[in-house]
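Sample entry copied in:
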Amino acid sequence: NNDFEAWFLLGAASMRQEPPNYDTVIEAFAFVVSIDNNDFEAWNNLGAAHMYRENYASALHALQEAGNMQRENWKIWENVLTCALRLRMLSKSISTLQHLLSIRKQTLSLNPNVIGLITVMLTQKFSEFDEQDSSVETSQCETEHSDSMPVKSKEEVVSRSTLQTLMQQFDTLVMDVCNRLNESSFMAGGTHEKQSPVSG
């Protein structure tokens, strides 16, 4: 217990330094969660430190742990979304965006860059499938005495099906955002929270 408190205080103090000592922050809070993996604040601080170090995979893991304990904490989930976008994790980006919109029903807080980045990722994924199809057709033409169509692998079918499902989910989310924009335009004195840009 004394070790837990000491390492937590060390991590917190290191975050308040100018500039913050993120190496110590990561070491301290990693030790804290190894003792108590139910401390959401330690997970959140660990994730934030990893984000500043641009260790997005480690940040995503820590922030996901924090988010699982604080499902309604939109700040944590916005950081989860940022990490997922940085890592080009399409499914995770869409599911996190979906969760964010569900917990922020009364507010409109969405960076348009998020929509743009997910659209680009979806487009790239569909392009990859088109290129695969094209290469298969070319290979067929060049193969002599080919009597049958190539059989698609189960993995390819599942991947394409999953991508189509993600596209449908994303379309629904975009419609939700558009509806919120339309509703907000009729609200007197409505406020829009300023977001920091998310870059790819």
Q: What stands out?
A: Helices lie at 2-16, 22-35, 40-52, 56-69, 74-86, 90-103, 112-142, 154-184.
